[in-house]
Design brief:
globular, alpha/beta, two-stranded antiparallel ribbon, ten-stranded mixed beta sheet, 7 helices
């Protein structure tokens, strides 16, 4: 009996150690290890020096065509902007080589609800595992990632604080309207973009939507006022607000189909100044 009692603490210790080892891979997810959600994944980088307790905002970023979440999380300029803003950077991955959206090449007619559900799942998983403020999660993306960002803003806005689409728009035809609630949207585009021109172009049997039409639709939907010109360094912006205080801003820069990380900081501060973050 005494021998059994002496060995009991050791058995408890080994049992606890075993539980730790079993859970270690799940706890290890971050900027270098995938955070798994079923067959899908994402990467996350918390702000440098974060204490693990105080909740911080987060930026979910969607890559472009044939991009990867790993490529996003390893983007030094994007990481630097996230660090400057003191936000967590969450890098997401499409199921295929691009994001599933309505009217995309390949004759897709459904609204791509699988992709919408994935973004909800990523947010829920990240908020449960990390110190992230669920009320201050913003989605951004470039090129087809910008198209996915617009789709979320129009069809699944209620779970996010704002959207920063970059060099992307809807696939045509532009939706006639969106679903509540009205979101904060700041769109960036190069004035010489030939990959996703402002007027759109034919791609694989589909057509990119007209950026001006997308903005006009969202302005009607959200009850936004006249878009007024503002002077910002290296940007030609048109900015508007509605009665609820939401913002709908559109900024052109001199360039082609490019992703400029610093513009995320510009958009983030626009939302902060409007009291939306």
């Amino acid at each position: 009996m005494m021998t059994r009692l002496l060995f009991q603490p050791a058995r408890i210790l080994f049992a606890c150690l075993g539980l730790f080892l079993l859970s270690a891979p799940a706890l290890a997810c971050g900027p270098d290890t995938q955070c798994r959600i079923g067959e899908r994944h994402y990467y996350i980088a918390m702000p440098p020096g974060h204490d693990g307790r105080d909740r911080v905002p987060a930026l979910i970023f969607a890559h472009g065509l044939q991009g990867t979440a790993l490529g996003t999380i390893r983007n030094e300029r994007l990481r630097a902007v996230a660090a400057e803003l003191s936000v967590a950077l969450i890098a997401v991955k499409s199921k295929g080589i691009s994001w599933a959206m309505q009217n995309a090449p390949g004759g897709r007619a459904d609204p791509g609800t699988d992709a919408l559900d994935y973004f909800d799942a990523v947010k829920a998983h990240a908020v449960a595992r990390f110190a992230i403020d669920p009320d201050r999660v913003v989605v951004s993306g470039a090129s087809t990632g910008g198209m996915m960002t617009w789709t979320l803003a129009c069809m699944n806005s209620g779970n996010f604080a704002g959207f920063i689409p970059m060099s992307g728009t809807f696939w045509a035809p532009i939706p006639p309207t969106c679903t509540d609630p009205i979101a904060n949207v700041v769109h960036f585009h190069g004035d010489k973009d030939r990959t996703v021109p402002l007027a759109g172009r034919e791609v694989g049997g589909a057509k990119q939507g007209d950026v001006g039409e997308a903005l006009a639709m969202y302005r009607r939907f959200g009850g936004f006022g006249e878009m007024r010109a503002t002077n910002r360094p290296e940007l030609d912006c048109r900015e508007s607000r509605n009665r609820q205080g939401n913002i709908l801003n559109f900024c052109l820069y001199d360039g082609g189909h490019s992703f400029r990380s610093r513009n995320i900081g510009v958009a983030w501060r626009m939302m902060q100044a409007a009291g939306q973050l």
